[in-house]
Amino acid sequence: MPLKLAMIVLPPLCVTCVVLYLAGVPWTTTAQVAAALLVFVAVIGLCDRLRQRRSPWQQQPGAESMADAPQQEAVLGIGASAIASLPVYKYRKKRGGTGDECSVCLAEVKLKETVKKLPACTHLFHEGCIDVWLRSHRTCPVCRTPVNAAAAATPTSLEVVVHTQAN
Question: Which of 11, 29, 124, 155 is the most buried (most CB within 10 A)?
Answer without folding.
Answer: 124
